[in-house]
Amino acid sequence: MSNQKRRQDVRNVAIIAHVDHGKTTLVDALLKQTGAYEFKAGETAIMDSNPLEKERGITIFSKIASFVYKGIQFNIVDTPGHADFGSEVERILEMVDGVLLLVDAFEGPMPQTKFVLKKSLELHLKPILVINKIDRASSQPHNTADASFDLFCELNATDEQLDFPIVYASGKDGWTTLDLEEPGRDMKPLLDTILRRVLPPLADPEKPFQMLVTLLDYDPYVGQISIGRIFHGEIAKGDPVSLVKNDGSVKTGRVTRILKYQGLVRVEVDSARAGDIVSLAGVDDVKVGNTLATGENPEALPRIKIDEPTISMVFSHNTSPLAGRDGGIFLTSRHLRERLEREALTNVGIKVEPAPGGEGFKVSGRGELHLSILIETMRREGYEMEVSAPRVILMKMGEQTLEPMEEVIIEVDEGYQGAVIAAMGERKGVMKDMNRTFIETIRMSFIIPTRWLFGFRGDLLQITRGTGIMYQNFYRYQKYLGEGASRQVGVLISKTAGKAVAFALDGLQDRGEIFIRPGDRLYEGMIVGVNNKGNDLVVNATKEKQLSNMRASGADEAIKLIPPRELTLEFALEFIADDELFEITPKHIRLRKRYLSENERKSRSRRSG
Ligand SMILES: Nc1nc2c(ncn2[C@@H]2O[C@H](COP(=O)(O)OP(=O)(O)OP(=O)(O)O)[C@@H](O)[C@H]2O)c(=O)[nH]1
Ligand SMILES: [Mg+2]
After folding, report:
1. Which of 15, 167, 249, 564 allows an S-S link to 23, with CB 3.0 to 4.6 Å?
2. Closest residue by Cα to residue 377 from 424, 351, 420, 340
3. For residue 136, which atom of ligand 1 is closest to its CA?
4. Tens-place pLDDT, residues 501-521
């Protein structure tokens, strides 16, 4: 490293952790105390700016903010903790020189802690351990520190990496301390630790400009925006630049705009140089992992890995008899295609292809959450569509078929483990280990085919009376284990179009859970509820009571209906079978049979069976 130059005025750091361990809240504290952002009263998780992030209280997209401390610019990347976005976190790590590994002092290290730590160690980063939420009365900072140390060892950290500093924090209350005996006052102990531990970026101004594209953005006025870290050289507005694609081909363009982060906003600058994290406009057709470079022989930086999708669903335009009645604006197949193609430009893990043998598009992604966020986003933009049940993406290796496997961690209160182990066994889950956590819960891990895990979350909640928690993470592809589980229950299918009637629902609710309310519009082939008996049943949910007897007329008001299940996207995805679809409009989610008429369903099943 002797003749390589480092610039001292910048630090690039990512915050990584398991979901909910407090990354975004910690960024709030940093932005507040360095004055980079002025918080309004009650404003929290300021980086979770997307409406879906706000609603769900989780980070979905990595985001960059910057602040100045002791005259040094800190670029800080907040990353999502959910496993579906793990491969994005992995790419982010290429952009930074240091990481803050947050661990919740109440929960201890969790599956995603291990995943992100493993990736950091592989990239030779030297993490800073931040034991967070120590304001909580029952937090266990010492146990958490020990368990984290064990995790570093298990992941073969080098001696240098094992020598990590520990900062104790309450991101929520905005203080950190290096010593548990000493009360923390502010974020300075953490900031000073970053300055000590995280190397300033390498910046050799003699080399030609090279930037690795790590994130993409799109702006209708300037086109594609490439976000990444400049590894070498300098760039100025108006400079010619080459895009080096993964196949080695080169396309040229000109930089029309350079933006740097300042607090939460991006501001235009005239030039930028090695060590900066910037957004560049002016070159289109960019993919994540491409290099932007200048000079006679523009060269690609080492390629970054992009994980292949593991599950897919078919999105088609809404063909239900109620299509277009809920205020949807984009209803056609062409609308869908354009929107999906645009998504694939920025959303790295998403792949869009025409669906085999039919209408619609096969959309592939890294997990159910990854795809459901896309569906929900499109719905809010005014798209209507129908979506098929998720399927795993199989791979061929020679003669052998491989399928994706998942590592699942399930944590339950003592007493439920037997039922969980039995349920996982039925689904071909193999237990890897089981232990008692320091908060006296039982934590088990299993390897299980992704296919068999669809729908399990609901079962787990039932088994554990709503208390069990589960985390899953793609494990690897391995030998296909034969046909998957099919749903245990059947469905109640509407025989006719019309409005649902309380009297009819009263007659149906003994059969299983109902999905609709009196007054809801129905169509033939729509699924109105569950039939616990296991077979599908065509029913009439629009049938009125015969009012032959005057005295019975008051009885309708006495009908006591069990409140129906509110259909959510998550439930729909997990519930529907292969011959079913769900329809999603700006206002409703409806489940339906793929073939709406009973005759067609019968003749199709005869032909295929
Ligand atoms: N008691 C306590 N709660 C905290 C602290 N930091 C965060 N929380 C709470 O923990 C929850 C999750 O916080 P976030 O900052 O959104 O966590 P995150 O790691 O960004 O979550 P993802 O981005 O979804 O992975 C919120 O309810 C916070 O209020 C802390 O220091 N103390
Ligand atoms: Mg977050």
Report:
1. 15
2. 340
3. 1
4. 999 999 999 999 999 999 999
